[in-house]
């Protein structure tokens, strides 16, 4: 019995030490789990079947389908009572046609936010691109359900989870900006406009960017292990951000993180190919969440019926938990 007591005491001491080394996760642990559970496969599916429908005509930048997409996103924020950081009722960051290459028409990013309770001037940005590649010459619609309808609807659900927490008096210490960018498919234009031309919240006050681009499917490599996600960039600028990401995952989700595409020598160069890069080039720590490419990538067959909604739910909850932790730490994430 004595030996058992000693063993238990030692075990508890080790656990306590481990928690101390991890600088403890946020308070209200039970609450954060409750809010994460408001992110559901059913709601993600309902939103994506609309957002990636033929009605949106492939959401090509500047075209009527993309205009319908930004209205869909805006209306979601209005209906849930989530405000814009631009002005009351104004969720669109206008980008003139002259900013784009070629014959692209004017377009817009969509912004919404939840103001921080203690450090409102500091912001965690969660981003995804709202556009896709439109309609082919023979009339095929590229619905882009995974690319990046999955990231778009994930942000909408994550935003709802933060709003639910805020309504219960558990709003994040730092502000959360939900940033839906246009023009990704034609060269990361929307995110570049935000970072280089008109950062609504100063980049010096931007703590981190969590970018979501394709998180609703499984690639060939992981057909027998679907509980995974590729992480890119988490340790490029901040080892602390990388460690937070790992700790949060182990505590709440326990998903396999695949860092294959994080390699500096990765021939795909995915680190440079999505919207997080425009933040990273400005020395802002980033994490890019990605399920890898698949047979329907950039094809009309990327449709909402092929999304694995339970997996999309899990990945969205992971990103919510990670954003929650970053937003609620006593100190902002350190840049190496």
From TrEMBL:
Domain of life: Bacteria
InterPro entries: EF_Hand_1_Ca_BS, M28_fam, Peptidase_M28
Cited SUPFAM superfamilies: Zn-dependent exopeptidases
Peptidase M28 domain: residues covered: 109-321
Protein name: M28 family peptidase
Gene Ontology molecular function terms on file: metalloexopeptidase activity
Pfam family, one: Peptidase_M28
Record Gene3D superfamilies: Zn peptidases
One Gene Ontology biological process: proteolysis
Signal sequence range: none
